[in-house]
Design brief:
Layout (H helix, E strand, L loop, with lengths): L7 E6 L6 H5 L8 E2 L15 E2 L2 E2 L36 H5 L4 H11 L3 E5 L14 H19 L6 E3 L1 E2 L5 H15 L3 E4 L15 H10 L2 E5 L9 H5 L3 H22 L2 H4 L4 E5 L5 H20 L7 H8 E5 L6 H8 L4 E3 L13 H8 L2 H15 L3 H12 L3
Parallel strand pairs: 1-5, 5-6, 7-8, 8-9, 9-10, 10-11, 11-12
Antiparallel strand pairs: 2-3, 3-4
Helix pairs in contact: 4-5, 5-6, 8-10
């Protein structure tokens, strides 16, 4: 808990071990996946993994791995980002434990998190390109999902995960989601908002996957990550990561929400729960108003299937995350509802405000709003009071 309030971290990250695919990838596919190695001949964190001759990411930015081991002088006075800087030494405990499950739970304790839903780091870009062999895509996903399931086994009542899906074949994706939920305990999937193989999210080709999410009662989590091959902001902004990072996290999410509302995804899949993660959320009310503005002109001719307003679809099907320190949080809550908001610590990424995320939120908004946002991930991921009781028991037992 955080100051007596329930707290679900809707988007906490792990750092995959560098030898994950050596250990978990189907042997038939290992020659096609090459991880960077050090002078000792062992896999190491750093440069992108090469898959079928191409790096998993077009982004050569290595900030995630440039963390000082000792505190130094912090030169930023920017309240939104001052606690993120690498020279604070805030992640020494995790680095010393090689980002293992014990470190994950320690990080949760530092923030006051009851239950965390885990998302990948390298895995955000692993299969994010067009034309990838669907069977290789499936093998990569299965390797990651098997590993993260074992990782969560350290404290299964507190550590939850979302499955990586082979989106290059929707039927393989459906099968992998079923396997992960029924056999491994996944609470949903993570999907990048970028277009895949020429099909965007309003395409009928995704209907089977939407339906399986509904039938399994699990969450569809959109999560962007700068540098993926399929993000067109690489072409617009080239090597400037500042441009690309700003644009990709907001605009790709906006494009996905437009497609899903106007394209009727929420009309035809009314039980689908969708999270828009690690992109703040002050963009959401303005975008909903923009769709609403055009609604009278175009609904009858271009979207006669829509029965609800854009805001009604959002409030029924969607949640959008904040990261605690944004000055617009209270105003946004007044427009879309604090009950449609959740929070992401983004631990342990370089641009996270960990371990001050929940503290920043509590300073930013009234307690009643903070309470809804901190617990918002429970509704997004279908977590109940029973889940919290089990998490409490695990915490009492030291897990």
């Amino acid at each position: 808990m955080k100051d007596g309030l329930r707290f679900v971290d809707s988007d906490m990250h792990i750092m995959e071990p560098p030898d994950l695919f050596d250990r978990y990838l189907d042997a038939a596919f290992r020659p096609r996946v090459v991880a960077p190695i050090g002078a000792d001949g062992k896999a190491k964190r750093g440069a992108p993994i090469v898959i079928d001759g191409l790096p998993a990411s077009r982004d050569a930015e290595m900030q995630q791995y440039r963390k000082r081991q000792r505190p130094g002088v912090t030169h930023s006075t920017q309240p939104l980002s001052g606690s993120r800087l690498a020279d604070t030494g805030r992640l020494d405990f995790a680095q010393e434990r090689n980002y293992d499950p014990e470190a994950q739970v320690m990080g949760m304790e530092m923030e006051g998190v009851d239950i965390a839903v885990l998302y990948p780091t390298t895995g955000l870009s692993l299969i994010a390109r067009d034309g990838l062999d669907p069977r290789l895509s499936l093998a990569l996903c299965q390797a990651y999902n098997n590993w993260i399931s074992e990782f969560c086994g350290y404290s299964p009542d507190r550590l939850k995960f979302v499955a990586m899906l082979p989106v290059h074949d929707v039927h393989l994706a459906c099968r992998e989601l079923v396997r992960c939920v029924r056999e491994l305990g996944a609470v949903g999937s993570f999907i990048r908002p970028n277009m895949i193989n020429g099909r965007f999210w309003h395409s009928n080709s995704w209907d089977p996957l939407y339906t399986v999410h509904e039938d399994l009662d699990v969450t569809w989590g959109f999560h962007e990550g700068t540098g993926a091959w399929n993000s067109h902001f690489n072409d617009l902004y080239g090597e400037n990561r500042f441009y690309r990072h700003v644009a990709s996290h907001w605009i790709e999410m906006q494009q996905a929400l437009v497609a899903m509302i106007v394209g009727g995804v929420f009309e035809f899949h009314p039980k689908l729960r969708v999270g828009f993660l690690e992109a703040q959320n002050s963009w959401a009310p303005g975008l909903l108003s923009r769709i609403e503005w055009d609604y009278p002109q175009y609904r009858e001719t271009h979207a006669p299937y829509l029965a609800l307003t854009p805001k009604e679809y959002f409030r029924r099907n969607c949640w959008a995350a904040v990261e605690g320190s944004e000055p617009e949080i209270e105003a946004t809550a007044g427009l879309i509802g604090a009950d449609r908001m959740c929070i992401s610590t983004d631990y342990p990424h370089f641009d996270s405000n960990f371990p001050h995320v929940s503290e920043n939120l509590m300073k930013n908004v009234p307690r009643e709003i903070a309470a809804e946002i901190l617990k918002g991930g429970a509704a997004l991921y279908g977590l109940t009071e029973e889940h919290f009781k089990n998490a409490d028991a695990a915490r009492a037992a030291g897990r």
